[in-house]
Write a structure and sequence with these properties.
With 384 residues, the protein is of the alpha/beta class. The chain is built from 13 helices and nine strands. The site of (3S,4R)-3-hydroxy-2-oxopiperidin-4-yl beta-D-xylopyranoside has 8 residues, from loops.
Amino acid sequence: MKINFKITVFLLLFMVSAIGCEKKEEVEEVEEQVNEESLTLKSAFADDFFIGSAVNDNHINGKDTLALQLIGKEFNTLTPENIMKWMNIHPEENTFNYDMSDQYVALGEKNNMHIVGHTLVWHSQLAPYINTISDSATMADNLKSHINTIVGKYKGRIHSWDVVNEALNEDGTLRESIFLKVMGNDYINYAFQLAALADPAAELNYNDYNLWKPEKRAGVVQLVKDLQAKGTKIDGVGMQAHWSLEGPSIEDIENSILAYSDLGVKVMFTELDVTVLPNPWDLNGAAVEQNYDKFEGDPTMNPYPNTLPDSIQNKLAKRYEDIFNLFLKHKDKISRVTFWGVHDGQSWLNDWPIKGRTNHPLLFDRKLNPKKAYQQIIGLKKQN
Ligand code: XIL
């Protein structure tokens, strides 16, 4: 009898504790689910680097309310995709258009974001009057007026500037831009000095594509060293990161991260996207002025006009996972990762280098739903 009683008490205790355990596990599971669901890009990577997106006119003027909700939820840094380029913000010598740039800065401030200025000195999307200048002193005056006025106007409000964009050729030599032709090598140093004077606290960066390439990497290293030797302030190197499913290799990207951070500057990935479309020709990087009209309307160049097949969706997710694994490995050297566009429907890669294609290079699809690549990179933080 006594034994039976003991056994019964033991069984009861066992059952109560088992139920307790099950409850605890259930509670933990629910807690985990809530945490996972509430993770966004900016919360997941909060301790690692800023994470952001380029924004277009309809984000800035408030018309694209759905994308704006997503921007506010997912990102903590913004870059203006086009509105601050020379031809838009300073189309004529004495004309500055601040309508869109004021709204852009206000959008970043409303969301408490790290606000990027893109870009001060670039050979592309330039105001036509600059191309008519043929003497060095006039070019210097125009650089001065452009940089002083714009950086000065947003002093303390734009936190980071792409001061010079795409000044290098693929072999690391300096590009024969109008600035180089008219002013010689020193235009880069001059631009950085002007920006530092106009806002001493702003972060000043050199930005370019294909910076994973060893020869171009060497060119950037030289450019940064030259500025540093002159005592000119340069804070970071922006690697644009217009990449594909196949390349560049993680090793090449890593070697550039190491080479740039060895110079004592921050590394940023400023225009990240991963094209899934065929590029059978030698694209020679992302030089925007190349012309591939002859491929327009060719269905073999536009294989996923409706949805992206699972096999490619998975490849894209794996590619983003590999890229973000590398970013996390070097989070002490990387200060910002910015995607070039909010969702696939808004990517410049639908029209470049061939117009009218359907590309799928970002983390959100055309309905603004997160893709597998999004889950995959957030997953890297869940594992930790
Ligand atoms: C692109 C924009 O996304 C397009 O809308 C525009 O037509 C051309 O420029 N490198 C840069 C970016 O630094 O400014 C470019 O943006 C893409 C390549």
